[in-house]
């Protein structure tokens, strides 16, 4: 356990050195590349306005997303009614998607329990 702590501390020191050496240059480069998105002068009022615009824009998009959800659901119902016409590739893709969702659920549960399988700390 002490050796792992020593390794972690060494890695943290390495990362700190890299950030200290290259962090400022990277920060300036990112700001320069994305200067078209920066509002001048930076003011709290402008930030509040932009956050409200984002919130209400997302709120206004709910009806569109609601309709898209029902279109997708109708498509799935159509596929289920005509499941005899499905190709093996389509079934395979659906099965892989289902397995992926199940896998993420299981991984999420394990992470939520603190990376333990049965809920007990070892």
From TrEMBL:
GO cellular component term, pick one: mitochondrial membrane
A Gene Ontology biological process term: ATP biosynthetic process
Matches recorded under Pfam families: ATP-synt_G
Principal cellular location given in the protein's record: mitochondrion
Transmembrane feature ranges: none
InterPro entries named in the record: ATP_synth_F0_gsu_mt
Family: Belongs to the ATPase g subunit family.
Record's protein name: Mitochondrial ATP synthase subunit G protein
Domain of life: Eukaryota
Keywords on record: ATP synthesis, CF(0), Hydrogen ion transport, Ion transport, Membrane, Mitochondrion, Transport
Compartment(s) of residence: Mitochondrion membrane
